[in-house]
Amino acid sequence: MSAAQWSQREQDRFMGKQYIDYEVYLVNVDPDKCDGCEKCIIYCPVDVFDFSIKAYPNRPQNCLGCRTCEAVCKSKAIIITEI
Ligand code: SF4
Ligand code: SF4
Questions:
Q1: What is the dihedral of CA 66, 26, 29, 62, to 10 degrees?
Q2: Total structural domains in the chain?
Q3: Which of 5, 15, 30, 61 has its CA 20 to 30 A from that of 36?
């Protein structure tokens, strides 16, 4: 194996390690259901939500998929989807 081939293989292995457990979540808030209780803002451990009359997911890229927000939202306004 040439040095270039070895280097490419090592890069591929490195990328595989980096992304093998990579997960992305969609965070959706239905504004028609949200009653403005702010519990999702209080309980989300990574500060996904902001609030202006209703909650909205301003930093969905932070989401860990813990589904705490779904559990505390009595209005069932939040849906977390793994993609
Ligand atoms: S927990 Fe549900 S009802 Fe309360 S602010 Fe968040 S989305 Fe709205
Ligand atoms: S699933 Fe967890 S991390 Fe993601 S928005 Fe809800 S509370 Fe925050």
A1: 60
A2: 1
A3: 61
52-75 average pLDDT score: 97
Write down the pTM of the prediction: 0.78
Q: Which domain holds residue 70?
A: 23-82
Q: Is 58 in the pocket of ligand 2 (CB under 6 A)?
A: no
> Does 27 reside within a domain?
yes
Is 2 contained in some domain?
no
Specify the residue with its C-alpha closest to ligand 1, atom 2.
73
**pLDDT per residue as tens digits for the range 30-49:** 999 999 999 999 999 999 99
> Which of 22, 26, 50, 48 has its CA nearest to residue 38?
50
